[in-house]
Amino acid sequence: MITGAPDPGMAGLAAGEGFARLCADRGVLFGGDYNPEQWPRETWREDVALMRRAGVTFVTVGVFSWSTLEPEPGTREWAWLDEVLDLLHEHGIAVDLATPTASPPPWLGILHPETLPVDRDGVRLAAGSRNQFAPSARAYRDAALRIATDLAERYAAHPAVRMWHVGNEFGQIDYGDEAARAFRGWLRERYGSIAALNEAWDTRVWSQGYRDFDDILPPRRAPYLLNPAQTLDFHRFTSDELRACFREQRDAIRRSGATQPITTNLMGFFPLVDAWSWAEDLDVIADDQYPDPAAPDSPQRIALVQDLARSLGDGRPWLLMEQAASAVSWRPHNLPKSPGRMRLDSLQAVARGADGVCFFQWRQARAGAERFHSAMLPHAGADTDAFRGVERLGADLARLRPVVGGRVDARVAMLFDWQGWWAASEPARPTTRHDTIAQLERWHGALWRRGVATDIVRPGADLSGYEVVLVPHSYVIEDDAADELRRAAAAGARIVIGPFSGVADAHGAILTGRSPVPLRDLIGASGEEWVGLPDDGLALALPSGEPTGPSTARATILAERLRTDGAEVLATFAEGDLAGRPAVTRHGAVWYLGAVVSEDVLATVLDEALAGVSGAVPHVPEGLEAVRRGGALFLLNHGESAVDVDVPEGSEDLLTGQRTSRRAKVAPGEAMVLIERRRT
Ligand code: GLA
Predict the structure, then answer these.
(1) How is the chain split into domains, by residue range?
(2) Where is 532: in which H helix or E strand?
(3) Which backbone phi and psi does 593 adopt, to 5 degrees?
(4) How many CB atoms lie within 10 A of CB 483?
(5) How far is the CA of 26 from the centre of ligand 1 (A)?
(6) Pocket lining: 322 vs ligand 1, CB cutoff 6 Å
(7) Does the C-beta of 287 come closer than 6 Å to ligand 1?
(8) Measured distance CA(356)–CA(405) in Å, rounded
(9) What is the CATH architecture assignment of 624-676?
(10) Beta carbon of 169 within 6 Å of any ligand 1 atom
(11) Cα of 360 from ligand 1 centre, angstroms
C-alpha cells in the first residue's frame, strides 16, 4: 500500500476550509460512488481508465463494504481496499472514504438481534437489505465504532484519501426496546423530572400521566391518535441519536490523526434528521438530490433544496454527493434523464453553490436491488450516449474552475426549520392539505422565476443583511425568532408571513389568545379561528373590497378568521362565511396572508415586498433559471424554446469560451456561465 503522512496543514481547519482547499486544488469535484468490491479486478483497471477519460476526479469508496471488510466478526480484509486506493491514487483520483456502517453484515443481527430495528408495529426488521441497524443498540454502535476506527487508522495517511464519509444517508428509525431505553435517557436529560415532562406533554389529556421515565415508550402503534408532544420529542430524539452515531465515528476518524474534511450525505428536506443541528458537525455540507425527470417543475423544486444545502453551510460551497445519471429504480415508474438534462441538473447545482458534482454511482450494478438504477457508466458500456454525456459534463466542469469558492449573495431569507415542520405535520389539525414544504416550494418558486437569490434561514437566526424576509409557514415561532423578526422589521426589512404560522410552542401546544400570538403586534392583525376551505376555495376581492370583473384571486386550503388591529386591508374574502373579512393585510412593511392565496395574489404581494431587490438579470424569460454566483452569471434554459437575455456587454461563456454581446441567446436545454471579461 502506498503510504504518506496526514497533511498537518489540514489539521484544525475551520468548517469548509478543508473542502475549499481540496476544490482549489482539484477544481469542481466530479465523480460518484464507486463500489469495486462488486466487480473483479480486471474491471477496476477499466474503471480507472474510463474515469480518467471522463474527467472524474473524486470517488466515494466503501459505503456498503462492511461484510467485505469484516466477513467474520473481528476479521479485517484490507488487501482489496489497499489495492483500490493505490490504483485510484496512481490515476490521480481523490477518494472520499466511507465508513461502511450503514449496512452491517448479517452476522451482527444474528449474534445481536437487538441491533436490528423495530418498526412502530413491533415488527423486527430483518437483514437482507441495508440500513438494518438500531441506532441506539450498543452492540451496533460498538461494532460500527471498531470498524470505523480501524479503517481510519489504516488509511488516515493514504494520499488518495481527501475526505471522509460517515455512514450513508442517516435516516434509520427504531421503535424497539433499545430505542425506548435511549429515548428515556434523552427525555431525562431534557426535562430533569417526570413532573416537568408531564407538564410539557400535558399528559392530563387522555389520562397519559407517567409515574416515571421508565414508563415511557417510543410512539408505537396505539389504538388512536398519539400525544403530539411525545411524537415531536421522538423526532428530536431520533435526529439526535443518529447524530450521536455520526459523531462517534467522526471522532474516531479524528483520533486516528486524519486531517481531511469529514461529512455525511444529507437528503434535503428529509423528515428524520434536523439538518440545522447536523450542519454544525459537518465539515462540508453534502447532499443527495434526485429530481424526477418526469416532473416539469423539478428544476424549480430542486433549486429550493440546493438553496437549503448552501444555507446549511452558511453560504459556503457544498457538495452534490449523489444524483442519478439517468433513471432511478425506486420510483414506481422510472423515466430516464437525457444526457442534456443530466448536464443541466449538474450545472444548476454548481450555480447554486456546489463545488462538486457526484453521482450514485460510477458503474451500473449488474446485480442486487439497484441493478436497474442508472450510473455514469451504464451496463452497455462506454459506447453510449449516456457515457458521452458524462464525458461532456466532465469537460464542462473542468472549465468551471473560476467559479470554485464563489458565493451566492442573497438579499432574501426564507424561514424554515424541522421542529416547526414536524409539529405542523402531526395528524388531527384543521386540514392535512396544508403542507409546509409545498408552501415553501410555492413561495420559493415565485422567487426562482424572478431570478432572485434566496437563503433558507432557521427561525431565530440573525436576519441582518436581508432586505426581505419570507415566512411561508413557520408553525412554531419561539420568542427568539419573533424577536429577530421584529429586529429585522425595525432595521427596515420587508417581511411577508403566510397563514398558520406562530401557532404552537416548542412542545406543539397551541399558543392561546388571538393568533398568531408571537407575531400579531408585528402584523397589526389577529385571528380567532383557522378555517379549512371547501375544495374550490373562496373568491378574494382586491384591492378595494369589491370584486372587479372576473378575478382569479382565490383562497384555498386554509384561511383565518382575521380582524385588523392597525394593518391596512389589501384583500378580503368575497364569499362564504368569511365574506368581507380581511384576507391579506399590510402593516408598515409587514404583509400577512390570512389564507393560502392563489398564485396571482402571492405574486402581487411578493412583487411589492421585493421592490428594489434585483434578480440575476433584469428580466427572466419563462423557463430560464438565472443565478449569480461569485462573478459568474449562470443561465440555464429549462424550457423548450430558445430565450434571449440581457447580459453585461463583453461577457465570456466559460463553457464555450465565446464572447456575448449585450443580448445572449440560450438554446432550450442549454446553459451559459458568463463572466465579465475586460476587453484587451
Ligand atoms: C441513495 C443511496 C444510494 C443509492 C441511491 C439510489 O442516494 O445513498 O446508495 O441507493 O439512493 O438512488
Answers:
(1) 8-176+233-399, 177-217, 412-609, 624-676
(2) strand 525-532
(3) -105, 115
(4) 13
(5) 25
(6) yes
(7) no
(8) 11
(9) Sandwich (2.60)
(10) yes
(11) 6
CA of 290 to the centre of ligand 1 (A): 9
Those residues whose C-beta lies under 8 Å from the C-beta of residue 303, and which sit 6 or more positions away, are 348, 352, 444, 448, 625
Reduce the DSSP state of residue 107 to 3 states and report it: helix
Pocket test for ligand 1, best of 103, 361, 370 (most atoms within 8 A of CB): 370
**Hunting for cell 462488486 — which residue is that?**
38
Cβ of 290 closer than 6 Å to ligand 1, yes or no, is: yes
Q: Which of 593, 319, 308, 614 is nearest to 457 (CA)?
A: 308
Global pTM value? 0.98
Q: Which atom of ligand 1 is nearest to the CA of 267?
A: 7
Closest atom of ligand 1 to 328 CA is 12
DSSP element (H, E) containing 468: strand 468-471
172-182 pLDDT tens trace:
999 999 999 99
Atom number of ligand 1 nearest to Cα 169: 8
- Please list the alpha-helical segments (H only) found in 503-577: 520-523
Q: Residue 631, exposed/middle/buried by CB under 10 A (0-12, 13-18, 19+)?
A: exposed
Please say if the pLDDT value at position 680 is more than 60: no
**Ligand 1 atom closest to the CA of 322, numbered from 1:** 7
Residue reference for cell 437487538: 114
User: 180-225: per-residue pLDDT in tens?
Assistant: 999 999 999 999 999 999 999 999 999 999 999 999 999 999 999 9
C-alpha cell at 155: 488509511
**Residue 373 Cβ < 6 Å to ligand 1:** yes
Residue nearest to atom 3 of ligand 1 (CA): 360
Query: SS3 sequence, 177-199?
Result: HHHHHHHHHHHHHHHCCHHHHHH
Among protein residues, the one with the nearest Cα to ligand 1's atom 12 is 328
Q: Are 253 and 281 in contact (CB under 8 A)?
A: no
**Structure-block grid coordinates of residue 290:** 434526485
Residue 548 has pLDDT above 70, yes or no: no
Which residue's CA lies nearest to atom 11 of ligand 1? 360
* Rounded distance from Cα 397 to ligand 1 centre (Å): 23
Question: Which three three-digit cell numbers place residue 10?
Answer: 489540514
Q: Which residue has the cell 441493478?
A: 371
Q: Rounded to 10 degrees, what is the CA torsion of 18, 23, 28, 32?
A: -50
Name the 3-class secondary structure at 395: helix
- Taking the C-alpha atoms of 195, 198, 200 and 204 in order, what is their torsion angle to the nearest 10 degrees? -130
Residues annotated as catalytic are: 169, 322
Q: What is the largest CA-CA distance in the chain?
A: 80
Strand spans (E) along 246-380: 262-263, 265-266, 286-288, 318-322, 354-359
> CA-CA distance, 135 to 239, in Å (whole number)?
10
Its CATH architecture, for the domain 8-176+233-399, is Alpha-Beta Barrel (3.20)
Percent of the chain with pLDDT over 70: 98
Q: How far apart are CA 443 and CA 436, in angstroms?
A: 11
CATH superfamily of 412-609: Class I glutamine amidotransferase (GATase) domain (3.40.50.880)
